[in-house]
Amino acid sequence: MVTHAAETGWAIDLTNVSKTYRGKVRALRGIDTRVRAGEIFGLLGPNGAGKSTLVKILMTVIRPTTASGTMLGQRVGHKPTLARVGYLPEHHRFPEYLTGAQVIDYYGALAGMPRAQRRKRRDELLEIVGMKDWADTKVRGYSKGMRQRVGIAQAIVNNPDLVVLDEPTDGVDPVGRRDIRAILVRLKEQGKTVFLNSHLLSELEMVCDRVAILVQGTVASQGTIDELTCGKIRYDIEIVGGDEAAAQRSLAAAAGSTPHTIARNTLSLATTDAAVVQPVIDALRAGGVIIRSIRPVRPSLEDLFMEAVTDPTTGVALPPGARKGAGREGS
Amino acid sequence: MTQILALLTDSYRELNSRKLFWITMLLSGLVVGVFAAFGLNDKGISFLWWQFDTPLLSAKTIEPRKFYIFAFANLGIPIWLTWAAMILALISTSSIFPDFIAGGAIELTLSKPISRMRLFLVKYVLGLLFVVLQVGVFSLACFLVIGVRGESWEPSLFLAVPIVTLVFSYLFGVCVLVGMMTRSTIAALLATLLFWLFLWGLNTTDGIFVLQRETSIVNHERAQKRVERQELASRRRIEQLAAAGEPVPTADTLPANVRDELEAVNAFLAPARKEAADAEESAAFWKRWTRLIVGAKTVLPKTVDTTALLDRWLLTPEDKALFSPERGESGDPDGKVRFGQPDREVQKRAEEAVRGRTVYWVIGTSLGFEALVVLVAGWLFCRRDF
Ligand SMILES: Nc1ncnc2c1ncn2[C@@H]1O[C@H](COP(=O)(O)OP(=O)(O)OP(=O)(O)O)[C@@H](O)[C@H]1O
Ligand SMILES: [Mg+2]
Question: Is ipTM beyond 0.85?
């Protein structure tokens, strides 16, 4: 399918999206972000960072205070485009009087799908999310994870070009989470774009091509995981040391002018180059120090996340929610 | 179209899942059953196998057809459909909008390619489905009963469907607006019931004021006639005096407390004139107040008047006269009417005044109110961040 989005390469291209709720909560303070067509994009951030707010703006559930940019080549808020988008809100509640199969059918119909197509797709999806045996049970009899599975199914019922999922694995068991990851990867293989909110960083790390970290309504950092971790790879050299002070002295001496930090009996060299490490090893060995391990360390998404949400001056993690005191403007 | 069909199916499923919907259906069936159990024969009325001899009300005095239609228009519609079924309908539909806009449910609906206003209006119209179905089934059942037992097929009974739905829609609009503002079913239901009670009170006041007005007008007219008669008597008296050569009172010779020469020769004229003046004042007073109430009713929905249209269309005044025992003595056609002791003439005029209100006034202005309320609610829906 040749779409405008495919031509420009951006499924979502946002500039300066901001939202101030009534009651003066500044949930978003000028978001600029782009999602390539055909990638899995992860949005992470602490509670109250504004992730759901951003998603709801894309889905026209709330009106942005300011927003410019496009989704699938149309301006944000363009209703007909939503026929090509699938959405799973957080804390969704389906009408209790519908069965799982009816839920999928109903939301497919609201997206404008013809009946015959819905039928076929419904059975397919129930199979994929493993809810075939429960298809004719009313939603009120479902467990949380079962609702979530049906939720995923209804989000992709209209065969969307862009799927927006707000915490899709919330409440789903490990097998279900793996199934959902497989669904996401398959969507990507089909050339669809996936926009994902999640707190499960290890999962995002497994599937996402690119991520953005949202903190207090602004994008703290974004890029591929490699880009974000680039320059943060280091080598840790751990030695067996009896006397800590002596160990630290010999580590410092060995490191010489190479940028480094020392914590207890571990020397962290801020370099990605293995060649730089070799003289340090030689120096340590010459000094008779016993080396226990040498390994390149690449920060995890969790480390990046922690770095983003920690106040650099105090070293304390920021409290949840939008910053209080809307009037004050600051970095 | 697919979307509207989906919303329709959903609304039906929602109704279907409500116990109250089926309870109301069942009660409707019961009411029709009782209705069908009544029979009219030459001796009087029968109920199931019991016979009540009522010579005044039997197949000899009225046609069975009219008996059933009257029962439908005067008992089935006003008591069952416009009160009991209406309350049940309000209870079971007041939660439609609060549920619809509840967090977790509305996000998905809003994220579909359908404009908010359209979504709102479709959902609103579908909210009337409950009443359409209930009244439809009830009317159909009554149609069959009248057809079989009254031996007359009356398709005009189905007028009840649009009329009762219309009345319900006035209230439903308010219910939706309050539901939209507060997101609370209970608040929406209570506010609607209060509003309904207020409308009912206003309508009752209107009825009383119209009766008062007509009473005072009739009193004024009659007093006026008495004055004319007394004046005539005075003139004759003056002519007699003149013919007999006796002194005729003139403007210069009048006593201080007498207005003109007519009063000077007739002791009854002054009190009659005073009575007429009082009646005129009273008529002016009630006219003013009735205008005020009617003005208030003009901008508000008219539930009772709308239901009364059905009565107006199904039964002619002659038909009605058959059933209503002569209210109020015809009494002295010239006598003074006191309120609470209605006079036939007054009764007739008051009924005519109410019947004379145009359909446009009754339905048009009510719909205007409803449209306004629905637009405000729709506007709130379009602007709200969910
Ligand atoms: N309807 C609303 N009215 C007012 N404030 C709101 C509303 N919804 C969210 N907020 C505020 O906006 C901020 C961002 O909320 P949002 O739900 O977008 O956070 P989030 O990143 O999705 O958090 P979580 O990870 O807990 O889901 C919060 O401070 C919240 O209090
Ligand atoms: Mg959220």
Answer: no
- Kindly list the protein residues whose Cβ atom lies closer than 6 A to any atom of ligand 1: A 21, 23, 25, 27, 45, 47-53, 90, 321-322; B 385
On whether both A184 and A104 belong to a single domain, the answer is yes
Q: What is the CATH number of the domain that holds A279?
A: 3.30.70
Of the partner residues B14, B107, B113, the one whose CB lies closest to the CB of residue A97 = B14
Question: What is the number of domains present in chain A?
Answer: 2
How many angstroms does the Cα of residue A52 sit away from the middle of ligand 2? Answer: 4
In this structure, are B227 and B190 located in the same domain?
no
- Beta-carbon contacts of residue A52 (< 8 Å; ≥ 6 apart): A89, A90, A166, A197
Domain shared by B272 and B301, yes or no? yes
pTM given for the model = 0.85
Same domain assignment for residues A221 and A259: no
Q: Mark whether B154 and B237 lie in a shared domain.
A: no
* Shared domain check, A128 and A40: yes
Domain tally for chain B?
A: 2
Residue A213: which of A68, A66, A42 has the closest Cα? Answer: A42
Same structural domain for residues A150 and A286? no
- Is residue A319 assigned to a domain? no
Query: Does residue B44 belong to any structural domain of this protein?
Result: no
pLDDT digits (tens, 9 = 90+) for B81-131: 778 878 888 988 999 999 999 888 899 999 999 999 999 999 999 999 888
Both A146 and A269 in one domain: the answer is no
User: Residues within 5 Å of ion ligand 2 by Cβ?
Assistant: A 52, 90
Chain B residues near residue A109 by CB distance under 8 angstroms: 2-3, 5-6, 9
Full domain range(s) for residue B286? 206-355
> Residue B119: closest CA among chain A residues belongs to which residue?
A110
Domain of A250, in residue numbers:
234-297
Q: Give domain status of residue A44, yes or no.
A: yes
Mutate to test the pocket of ligand 1, among A18, A19, A25, A199 (most ligand atoms within 8 A of CB): A25
Residues of chain B with Cβ-Cβ distance to A106 below 8 Å are 6, 9-10
Cβ contacts from A onto B, under 8 A: 88
Give A28 Cα–ligand 1 centroid separation in angstroms.
Answer: 9
The per-residue pLDDT for range B197-249, each reduced to its tens digit, is 999 999 999 999 999 899 899 989 999 999 999 999 988 988 888 888 887 77
Tell me: do A267 and A166 sit in the same domain: no
Residue A292 within a domain: yes
More confident residue, B10 or B341: B10
Low-confidence residues in chain A, pLDDT < 70? 1-8, 231, 323-331
Distance CA B72, CA A16 (A): 65
Domain co-membership, A64 together with A14 = yes
Q: Which atom in ligand 1 lies closest to the alpha carbon of residue A56?
A: 18
Which residues of chain A have a CB within 8 Å of the CB of B107?
56, 59, 61, 87, 89, 92
Are A157 and A122 within 8 A, CB to CB? Answer: yes
Smallest CA–CA distance, residue A234 to chain B, in Å, is 45
